[in-house]
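> tool_call: predict_assembly(chains=three)
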Amino acid sequence: MLEVEHIDAGYGSTVILQDVSLRVDTGEVVTIVGANGAGKTTTLRCIAGLLQPRSGRIRLDGQDITELAAHDIVDLGITLIPEGRQLFPDMTVRENLMMGAYRREARACQSQSLSEVLDLFPRLAERLDQPAVSLSGGEQQMVAIARGMMARPKILMFDEPSLGLAPIIVSQVFEVIEQVAASGTTVLIVEQNVFHTLKVADRGYVLENGRMTLEDSAAALLADDHVRQAYLGI
Amino acid sequence: MTDIATTLTSTPKRLAGRRAATFGLLAVLAGILLVPIGLNDEFVYHIFITICIFAALSTAWNIVGGYAGQLSLGHAVFYGIGGYAGVMLANLGISPWFGMFAGAGVAVIVAIIVSYPCFRLHGPFFALATIAFLEVFRVLALHFKEFTGGATGMMISLNIGWEWMVFRERLPALVIAFGMMLVCLAAAWVIRNRRLGFYLVATRERESAAKAAGVNTVKVRLMAVSVSAALSAMLGTFHAMYLTFIEPEAMFSLEFSIQIAMFALIGGIGTIWGPLLGAVLLVPITEFARGALGAEAIGLHGFVYGIVLMLVVLFMPNGIMGLLSRLRPAESARKETEAAPVAAEPRASGRTDAGEAVMRVEGLNKHFGGLHVTNDVGFTLREGEILGLIGPNGAGKTTLFNMLSGFLKPDEGSVSVRDAVGDWQHPASPGEFAALGVGRTFQIVQPFAAMTVEENIMVGAFHRHAQVGDAREAARETARRMGLGPYLDLEASSLTIGGLKRLEVARVMAMEPRILLLDEVMAGINQTDVRRAVDLMLSIRDTGVSIIAIEHVMQAVMSLSDRVIVLNSGQIIAEGEPRSVVSDPMVIEAYLGKEFANA
Amino acid sequence: MEIFLQILANGVMLGGLFAIVAIGLTLIFGIVKVINFAHGEFLMVGMYLTFLLTTGLDLHPYIAAAAVVPALFVLGALTQRFLIQPLLSARDEHVQIFATVGLSTALMNLALLIFGADIANTPVHGVRSQVQLGPVRVLEGQIWILVAAVALVIGLQFFMKRTTLGRAIRATAQNRAAAQLMGINDRLIYVLTFGIGAACVGLGSALIAPLYPASPTVGTYFVLIAFVVVVLGGLGSVAGAFFGAILIGIVDAMSGFYIGSDLREAVVFGIFLVILILKPSGLFSTRLNQSHVSP
């Protein structure tokens, strides 16, 4: 479904990614694992169109989307839930969620989407008319995920969804991700919480210093000595 | 070492290029003086005198607007002060040669009073504030007629001769204007090549990194503003005597201020010679337009200025100097054989095991809005110890670092540092922390992008060495130790993330700190380099430096730290030997979640 | 007392005038994060367009607004698209400042080339007639300006809160990257916003033209005051700009009468500097707009 082929990317003259390739098939949950600064977020930004790769191609269902603008890529059905939530702070929770359904396909059924995500996150129903900035970190992450789902994307990408959350909330977040995947949405997830993520994922890639060094099934990666040593601390 | 820089080209033409540039410059300067003398035409003289004045004003502006990056659009304030001081004193029978220094003195005082509160304003707001000050001065000059003559202006009393700066012929005026231009260029050159210039550019590029390197950012900016104001005022005095008539609308003019800045922008903002080139190119065009087309084309030269300004920012934002530097061969990496970081030699006294406390942190609390980011954090750092600080993302580690280096004031609690003599101090600002020998790196690297690797490290080295030569020597030594030796002449912006991380550490090391705060310096670098970095940090520790290191790479934390503190949700949840901390169930849960702890 | 009330009324009317110039400026700043130094020249262009339409086609200036407003929208949109947008990624702020300063210089001198330095009087069509309001007298045109300013504030609030485009504009202003991730075309939003901001001052120019003569430098005076008003009201806050404008209008009128008309500007800019330095977030601001000062 999504193919990333040999992309190089960076900021200014700084190189972050070198020759990165990956593949996500329909209905899969795929994860990219790696240390802070390895280039995981940059990979997602390239796919989402926020950053233009210097070389290489990115394809969605065979269509070349490498040079499309971010908003066009959203229209094609790829949504990124960015690191650090990135809500619209002075807008209410309801307005934030409505912005999620901005893309044309999603706008038509936004009220249906809204009731669906509120079923998933009943806490948010009580908070609909509060400004997003007044929510707790965990609630804000819920809004960010719910906002991403409002777009009804084909592929939903998560960038560090557990960042800065208490362990109990982290477990909830991963439950939600499992539900999203169960509903048929394809998921690409980048996480520092390697153990949790590999439990949820089907397949995983290891990104080190801007290069893909390993690709395997999630179960195999969990058992891999290198991964265990480098990322699980055991 | 392939991961440090993306480009490594070598050319032997650099010297030749530099020589060509010097010849070009001398030719331009000689031309300014000799062309009018050769042609001996009133109008040509006038144009070249005007070139000198604008080049000089623009060069003076550039010290503030370019080096310091404080975009003043009110520089005519200083020019006007100089003009009025000169004329008013001349009419009292005091020579403008004295008047110009009186004007400069007043301008410096005004500059300091005006600038000090404005420095916290960024970009356009600083510009707006300077415009507002200019307007206030203009209105006041119009109002106090008894001193300034008000809107009708003031004629100077026509005493002719060198002591009055007023001449029948044009040549002496050209000589004075040319001399003043040379003074301004020399001042700009000297500042750029001294510690002050390095500090100004560093402050412009990354204010927080400059503060961490011990730069008193307010003081260096005030010095720049003072020099710039004094030079502008002296030029104002001369220009007033040259024009023989002044009025508020002309002396405190916004359009004039914009022109001064514009020449610098077009020539190359922040460069030494850019303002000169900008004035040389543009003044003749506009003066010819004014002279040849006259009243029929009123507004034409301004229209051209505006269009040129827009085209320059769109298509050559680095100005003429930017174009010229593209012609010259690129700076290249030096051919040096050494590459890997070299371990430091242990200090003669040797390592003091678990020495005395050098930093005490007590009861730190910090709230952001409703978020309790640091909750009653306290610990002690000992001399020659490496203290690992770990915890999940968002646990508050970087916030804690900001409080340990003066960048953030805690709501409650205190940080005390023992000075070199052994007394406990309570530093409050980044500058005070730096002065006590606390150096820090930033998690998000903060290179001075427009400077070379060597210059970046020199900014740190200036903390201990006031002279450029000594600082350069110290910077090279540090670079060699950090494995940056071959890249000294590269622009910092051409390094990879790994290289920038190393540069970040090198800049702090050049400060020769006693306490080193390292924020994730190993993030994103590969296994071999992690190994190397660990060795480097151990060797630094062995010279008696105490280190607090935030790190995510577990393997590094384990082999590095003498002691580890685990932070979660702003609280210390564990502290002790690395081995025992990692097996603590609370730590495992915080990092990996409940299931893993039970598994 | 009657004199005081009359001066107060003059101040409020002057404030309405400042408001209608400043609203577009604060809108552009709040959303696009660019200080448009050419905003005063937009006003000047609008006033000359009104002058040409009223004298050439013998239109009422308020009817000419129907053409001036869209024309200014296009001028603003083009400015964003071809001057600001290419500079959005520029590392140094000075580039954007010089870009609009350059546009300002070019437009002002273009007007000087075309119209000369003389003033151009737009036909008044009766809007300079005096109206008695209780104890005070004001010009009919001034009332319309105040009404238009109030309507503009309310209309913009409604547009921003209740329409999809308005919400998209707010979203882009609050978090540009996140807005892109929602599928919002941020560049288009910026172009539209700049256009709307310029259209606001276009409306102002048609209303102001019959009261004040147009000249190439007419924008300079108004825009400096507009900057004061925008900072005072809290950058980017439309309602704040309105109240800031009224306040400055009153200060201007009062200081003109009680201190001296030639020192009015010194008082206004003095207040501006004090606010900028002591409370740079403005008098009526929200916590959002502090990006221009160091903590």
